[in-house]
Amino acid sequence: MRDLDQKKTIDILNSIMEFELAGVVRYTHYSLMVTGPNRIPIVDFFKTQANESLTHAQQVGEILTGLEGHPSLRIAPMEETYKHSVRDILEESLNHERKALELYKNLLETVNDASVYLEEFARTMIGQEELHNIEIKKMLRDFSGSAV
User: 30, 60, 66, 98: which sits with the fewest CB atoms below 10 Å from its CB?
Assistant: First the structure.
């Protein structure tokens, strides 16, 4: 095994933490903006996503401090389109989840063959983000009639 690039790993983990914290804000906002006859299950979906983002940020923070890093107090920049149809919100969510997937893949590339624990953590998170992408794509299918 090779040595872990601790500085690069900490930087990536901080980026992930900021992104996950932005997810808490984003998904909480979405849960408040949903209207219509299917509101309740969609609100529940977004509340679950917000809670999951917070859990991910906490997990990343624990790893950061374990690596003698300092967890960031910032959140990643968030774009606001001011479009709040369920379709628009789901499309924004899909973009957010795709970016999260990229961040975790970047972490995996950085820790590969340097830390079994961090590799497994990154792989687990990649699996979860891939599942989120699949779920949101399935939700969007009803709006477009085709896969996204």
Answer: 66
Q: What is the pLDDT of residue 143?
A: 73
91 pLDDT above the threshold of 60 = yes
What CA–CA distance (Å, rounded) separates 62 from 17? 10
Per the CB < 8 A criterion, the answer to whether 78 and 132 are in contact is: no
CA atoms of 23 and 46, how far apart (whole Å) = 10
CA angle 57/63/64 to nearest 5° reads 85
b/e per residue 64-78 (b: at least 16 CB within 10 A): beeeebebbeebbee
The pLDDT value recorded for residue 80 is 86
Percent pLDDT > 70 in the chain is 97
The residue among 37, 32, 21, 56 whose CA lies nearest residue 132 is 56
What DSSP string describes 82-132? Answer: ---SHHHHHHHHHHHHHHHHHHHHHHHHHHTTT-HHHHHHHHHHHHHHHHH
